[in-house]
């Protein structure tokens, strides 16, 4: 089922919303009253950049059972580097001015 913030399907095997919400599971369901989850990619792009003064940052996705394996991310380059597992954005403070002057970024800087 596609998320409400996506205009079309993004996979060949995905059925459009109109065809995905039929069958016995949805017979007595008012679709307008159902929760409307957004696609995860849209939610992660609302996360602000985590600024670091170190060249290498560590991300564990929040730790514990809800996290992911610990990864080390190099933030030397003058761009925003997302975590490969959870997508949280990281950047080095020395690159803040460069990123602030950029016309557009995928993540909020503040």
**Biggest beta sheet attributes:** 3 strands, mixed
> What overall geometry do the principal axes of the alpha carbons give?
elongated
* Rg from alpha-carbon coordinates: 19 Å
User: N-to-C SSE series?
Assistant: HHEEEEEH
Number of strands: 5
Mean pLDDT across all amino acids = 83
Q: What percent of residues adopt helix (DSSP H or I)?
A: 10-25%
Strand content: 15-25%
Distance between the termini: 33 Å
Task: Please count the helical segments.
Answer: 3
Low-confidence stretches: none
Class inferred from helices and paired strands: alpha+beta
Strand order of the largest sheet: 1-5-4
Q: Could you characterize what this model shows?
A:
With 110 residues, the protein is α+β, with helices and mostly antiparallel strands. The protein has helices spanning 17-20, 40-44, 96-101; strands at residues 50-52, 56-59, 71-74, 81-82, 89-92. The strands form 2 sheets. It has a 3-stranded mixed sheet with strand order 1-5-4, with no helix packed on it. It has a two-stranded antiparallel sheet with strand order 2-3. Strand 4 and strand 5 (89-92) form a beta hairpin.
Characteristic key phrases:
single chain, 110 residues, alpha+beta, three-stranded mixed β-sheet, two-stranded antiparallel ribbon, 3 helices, 15% strand
């Amino acid at each position: 089922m596609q998320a409400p913030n996506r205009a079309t399907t993004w996979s060949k095997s995905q059925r459009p919303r109109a065809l995905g919400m039929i069958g016995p599971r949805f017979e007595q369901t008012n679709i307008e009253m159902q929760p409307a989850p957004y696609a995860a990619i849209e939610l992660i792009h609302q996360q602000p950049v985590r600024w670091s003064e170190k060249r290498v940052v560590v991300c564990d996705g929040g730790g514990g059972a809800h996290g992911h394996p610990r990864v080390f991310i190099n933030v030397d380059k003058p761009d925003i580097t997302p975590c490969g597992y959870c997508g949280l954005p990281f950047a080095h403070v020395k690159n803040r001015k460069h990123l602030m002057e950029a016309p557009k970024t995928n993540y909020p800087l503040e």
